[in-house]
Specification:
- The protein is an alpha+beta fold.
- The strands form two sheets. Strands 7-6-1-3-2-8 form a six-stranded mixed sheet, with helices on one face. It has a two-stranded antiparallel sheet with strand order 4-5.
- The protein is built from five helices and eight strands; from the N terminus they run βαβαβαβββαββα.
- The protein has one domain: 2-Layer Sandwich (Peptide Methionine Sulfoxide Reductase, Chain A), CATH 3.30.1060.
- Helices cover about 25% and strands about 25% of the residues.
């Protein structure tokens, strides 16, 4: 089975990971920080909002079972991609909507998916999701991994919209 990696940011990584882990074709997820300049960031630094990093989920998936475009379809249903630096009550650049592409093909697909969703008027405002080349991904602390599995009553502002 072949594997591909996607790195997605759409607010608090706990809720995103919980939805993504249940998508058929997803092999593995890791929550962490990416997109910033701070080396070896941790939650105490990232939560302040000035490290440049976003809370993100790195997704390993089987492309013969789940295409990248299909994965992005879920991504755009699980968070509000029209709000810059905010998801629910979470405010700050660490909660921005971003796709960190791993190849030029992923970048092309992301642009196509955004164009399609915008043209369908699924949101009442334009999508503001950043599309940027992936940078170093730093796994978050262990207590953040699988957080909602460990804490079923934990906070999330994510759900799959129609």
């Amino acid at each position: 089975m072949s594997k591909e990696t996607a790195t997605l940011a759409g607010g608090c990584f706990w809720g995103m990971e919980e939805i993504i882990r249940n998508i058929p074709g997803v092999i593995h997820t890791v929550v962490g920080y990416t997109g910033g300049e701070t080396v070896n960031p941790n939650y105490a630094v990232v939560k302040l909002g000035n490290s440049g990093h976003a809370e993100a989920v790195q997704v390993e998936f089987a492309p013969e079972k789940l295409s990248y475009a299909e994965l992005l379809g879920y991504f755009f249903r699980m968070h509000n991609p029209t709000t810059k630096n905010q998801q629910g009550n979470d405010l700050g650049s660490q909660y921005r909507s971003a796709i960190f592409y791993h190849s030029l093909e992923q970048k092309k697909t992301a642009l196509e998916v955004i164009k399609k969703i915008d043209s369908q008027k699924k949101w009442n405002r334009p999508i503001v999701t950043e599309i940027v080349e992936v940078s170093k991904f730093y796994p978050a602390e262990e207590y953040h991994q699988d957080y909602l599995q460990k804490n079923p009553q934990g906070y999330t502002c994510h759900w799959l919209r129609d």
